[in-house]
Design goal:
The structure holds three protein chains of three kinds. Chain A is mainly alpha-helical. Chain A has eleven helices and two strands; from the N terminus they run αββαααααααααα. Chain A has a two-stranded antiparallel sheet with strand order 1-2. The termini of chain A are far apart. The N terminus and C terminus of chain A are likely disordered. Chain B is globular and about 55 Å long. By secondary structure, chain C is mostly helical. Chain C has a single domain, classed as MetI-like (MetI-like fold, Orthogonal Bundle), CATH 1.10.3720. Chain C contains eleven helices and no strands. Chain C is globular, with a radius of gyration of 25 Å. Chain C starts with 11 loop residues before the first helix and ends with a helix. The mean pLDDT of chain C is about 90. The chains are: A mainly alpha, B alpha/beta, C mainly alpha. Chain A: InterPro entries: MetI-like, MetI-like_sf, Phosphate_PstC, Phosphate_Transport_Permease. Chain A: Keywords: Cell membrane, Membrane, Phosphate transport, Transmembrane, Transmembrane helix, Transport. Chain A: This is Phosphate transport system permease protein. Chain A: It is a multi-pass membrane protein.
């Protein structure tokens, strides 16, 4: 036992270094994603004969490349927002069902059922969408078009199955489990003593939820919705099979309109020239930045919520 | 508005576990009745059966009768929501709604019934806060969150919230156990004032408190851990504390156990 | 003043509203389950048509676009290799990062930044990770399209999931265990390897399985960096390979019934693999939980 008592043991240094380095590798990867997308997008952007941010058409493979993110970004945002509007109320309902309505014994099993929705791969939703939902949506879409055409989004002369609405519906199904899972967690954390306070005042179950659960859970639901929005924007294969892949800006969600950045990358990659690939990478960069923004916003809401929880404690 | 409560042969369960057994008693109107007994003897469980809060816990159920004057609270056509509206409750830990202002906390119960004008609400809120001896401390900041008050103030806010709906009975589950001595004194004073108007039932761990505030005292005990809790005896508070009929009561009062 | 006596029933309006909300909540759950049932039902019904020995043992080599027959053997091999390679990359990095965050980070600035970017990384769309590997590995470094390139892209998607689940498990290990080990004079790194990791082991395995299940169904990165082929390519480091999700996409894009049937059978195979991974993960965590209680 000659070893000095307080020497750092051998092995701790390298191990500490290795784990710290792994954390840094993650940071490097995130930075590299940005850097390499920029580097490989620049030649294509320089060859572009139009404005990348405002141009609607997408002809990067032509000898005079003309392409822009306009229509694609529009389609990405609109389809994701519609998906969010459809999915959020249902997801909040599902979360409440599992946290406050379903019988206790069944609740976790039923929650697992909803989680299974998230386990189905994107491409399977795509296949399901093309083979089942697209033809299925024709009659409800015609119905909306016939009786609600006075609402501009349901207008238009021709109704198709491969529409913005169908794509948004598939997106809604795909983001529903994540929104439901996060909302469920925050609803379950709602303080029991405040729930009892509401009940003891003679509140019905819904009034108790409105007084003691929803105000507590609101920031969590907002975060969940933002994360779902980010997920919807980046979703690729399912919508690549459904979008009619046009390059126009139209709010008519029942007509043959619609595309998204991610879908365009999947559909356009096969026949892309080097400039075409660069153009797709440039569009991917835009997608990366938008999702980064949405996800950061979601995290900020969570961070604020922690402070709020501490203040309330 | 105070009512007499009559309990006959009441059992309460958590799942298959019987928590209290065979309890019968009469609680007099416009008086304070205290429940005392060692931890786990079922006194809080019993209190929660009096306004059907017990069954809020999953798997919990009740057998027996609780009558408020001539109505059975567990009758087939009785809605537990209206029972709780009629019999108010104050909890062990102050639990104001953190996102609501002081005003909204007090008005919360009234707003549920939704037929009050703003001035009516203001009147009731002021009256309730005065009734809870809190008005002078908060009248200038009614729009501030209730969570910003001290523990004792929060508990009085919860009492104001409970009395704002004009209940016929007020149940208090160890209302002072989370409070400092000065706040405790304030709540005890308040209890003696409130009994002019309400029937009050209070669970307490503190025997001095029971002796100070109550007219009647009920002593609960359980034979062994895992056995259901039972009512050992109930009588005038002065009698329970000076000359109890049961040995267990005497042992508990004199501090030999519990 | 009217004296209110007895128990006043609540107003009909309030009761109706309460019931209406209850109905809506039940309805929401039913709405959520409908697509799940529909997807699973169609995948099973349509998938079984071609889910046979030939499908599982043959590739698409020399099968024309309109021909019947053919299978997904090459795609199954590809997916298994790609997912295995992706795990070999993502698990060590993810696990070590989790160890850094829990054991060494001490809530310092670097650890907060790493933690934040792990969260942000969770939101990186799969198509973006594919584009990144395309830009970096294939275009900048001049590497070929390969299963390994796909594995690189998948590993980026796996890492944050592995970090978060491992981190959660490591934090569940009671501090007393660590302190007991330090008190015996065991150096920190050995305490982590010999005491902390074994305690958290099953939980970490569960998390890894779930992460694998998540990326096994990813299509977009494969499309961009693995390319696709109709032939068997056992070498993930060289040349285009197939992957099961890519196979489904490829067949689904062909407008004839035999191809669509193959797509459904591929989807069934993919879902079976993913459900199996999920099931094993759940079994492991279920098997672990009594030990945790005891």
């Amino acid at each position: 036992m000659r070893r000095p008592a307080f020497r750092r043991s051998r092995g701790d240094g390298p191990f500490r270094f290795l784990s710290t380095a792994s954390g840094i590798v993650l940071l490097v990867i995130m930075a590299a994603i940005g850097v390499f997308l920029v580097v490989k997008a620049i030649p294509a952007l320089q060859a572009n004969t139009s404005h990348f941010l405002t141009e609607l058409t997408w002809n990067p493979n032509a000898t005079q490349p003309v392409f822009g993110i306009g229509a694609l970004a529009f389609g990405t945002l609109i389809s994701s927002f519609i998906a969010l509007i459809i999915a959020t109320p249902v997801a909040v309902g599902v979360a409440l069902f599992i946290s406050h309505y379903a019988p206790r014994r069944l609740a976790s099993a039923l929650g697992y059922l909803v989680d299974l929705l998230a386990a189905v791969p994107s491409v399977v939703y795509g296949l399901w969408g093309v083979a089942f939902l697209v033809p299925f949506m024709l009659s409800p879409s015609s119905f909306l078009n016939k009786y609600f055409a006075w609402i501009p989004i349901f207008g238009g002369d021709q109704v198709v199955g491969k529409s913005m609405l169908t794509a948004s519906l598939v997106l809604a199904i795909m983001i529903l489990p994540i929104i439901a899972a996060i909302s469920r967690e925050v609803f379950l954390q709602a303080p029991r003593i405040q729930e009892e306070a509401a009940l003891a005042l003679g509140a019905t179950r819904w009034e108790m939820i409105r007084m003691a659960v929803l105000p507590f859970g609101r920031p969590g639901v907002i975060t969940a919705a933002l994360l779902g929005l980010g997920r919807a924007m980046g979703e690729t294969i399912a919508v690549a099979l459904i979008f009619p892949a046009t390059f126009t800006i139209s709010f008519r969600i029942l007509s043959a309109n619609g595309n998204s950045i991610a879908a365009n990358i999947a559909n356009g990659f096969g026949e892309a020239t080097p400039i075409g690939r660069g153009a797709l990478i440039a569009s991917g960069l835009v997608l990366f930045l938008i999702t980064l923004l949405v996800n950061t916003a979601a995290r900020l809401v969570i961070a604020r919520r922690k402070e709020y929880a501490r203040a309330a404690a | 508005m105070a009512k007499q409560i009559e309990v006959s042969d009441l059992d309460a369960y958590y799942g298959s576990h019987k928590a209290i057994e065979g309890i019968s008693m009469t609680i007099e109107p416009r008086s304070v009745t205290a429940f005392i007994g060692p931890s786990g003897c079922g006194k809080s469980t019993f209190l929660r059966t009096l306004n059907r809060m017990h069954e809020v816990i999953p798997g919990a159920r009740v057998e027996g009768k609780v009558r408020l004057e001539d109505q059975d609270l567990y009758g087939p056509s009785v809605d537990p929501v209206s029972v709780r509206r009629t019999i108010g409750m104050v909890f062990q830990r102050p639990n104001p709604f953190p996102t609501m202002s002081i005003f909204d906390n007090v008005a919360a119960g009234l707003k549920l019934n939704g037929r009050f004008s703003k001035s009516q609400l203001e009147g009731v809120v002021e009256e309730s806060l005065k009734g809870a001896n809190l008005w002078n401390e908060v009248k200038t900041r009614l729009n501030k969150p209730g969570a910003g008050l001290s523990g004792g103030q929060q508990q009085r806010l919860c009492i104001a919230r409970a009395i704002a709906v004009r209940p016929q009975v007020l149940l208090m589950d160890e209302p002072c156990s989370a409070l400092d001595p000065i706040s405790t004194l304030a709540i005890e004073d308040l209890i003696s004032e409130l009994k002019q108007e309400f029937t009050i039932v209070i669970v307490t761990h503190n025997m001095q408190q029971a002796a100070r505030v109550s007219e009647k005292t009920a002593f609960f005990n359980l034979a062994a851990q895992g056995q259901p809790g039972k009512l050992i005896e109930m009588d005038e508070t002065s009698k329970i504390f000076t000359n109890p009929t049961q040995k267990a009561t005497e042992d508990y009062i004199t501090g030999r156990f519990g | 003043m009217t004296v209110v006596t007895g128990i006043q029933p609540i107003s009909a309006g309030r009761r109706v509203k309460d019931r209406a909300v209850q109905a809506l909540v039940y309805l929401a759950f039913a709405i959520a389950v409908v697509p799940l049932v529909s997807v699973l039902w169609l995948v099973i019904r349509n998938g079984l048509k071609r889910f046979d020995i030939e499908f599982l043992t043959h590739s698409m080599r020399n099968i024309g676009a309109r021909d019947a027959g053919g299978g997904a053997y090459h795609a199954i091999i590809g997916t298994l290799e790609q997912v295995l390679l992706a795990s070999l990359i993502a698990v060590p990095i993810g696990l070590l990062t989790a160890i850094y965050l829990v054991e060494y980070g001490n809530g310092g600035r670097l650890s907060r930044i790493v933690s934040f970017f792990v969260d942000v990384m969770t939101g990186v769309p799969s198509v973006v990770s594919g584009l990144f590997i395309l830009a970096f590995w294939i275009l900048a470094l001049g590497m070929p399209f390969s299963g390994f390139a796909g594995a690189l892209a998948l590993s980026i998607l796996m890492m944050p999931t592995v970090v978060r689940s491992a981190e959660e498990m490591l934090r569940l290990v009671p501090n007393e265990l660590r302190e007991a080990s330090y008190a015996l004079g065991v150096p920190k790194w050995r305490s982590i390897v010999k005491v902390v990791l074994p305690t958290a082991f099953t939980g970490i395995v569960t998390g890894v399985m779930l992460a694998v299940a998540r990326v096994a169904g990813e299509t977009a990165p494969l499309l961009l960096v693995v390319f696709s082929t109709d032939s068997i390519n056992n070498d993930p480091f060289n040349g285009p390979q197939m992957g099961l999700p890519l196979y489904v996409f490829d067949q689904a894009s062909r407008p004839n019934d035999t191809a669509i049937d193959r797509a459904w059978a591929g989807a069934l195979t993919l879902i079976l693999i993913i459900m199996l991974l999920n099931l094993v993960a759940r079994l492991i965590s279920w098997w672990r939980s009594p030990a945790k209680r005891g």
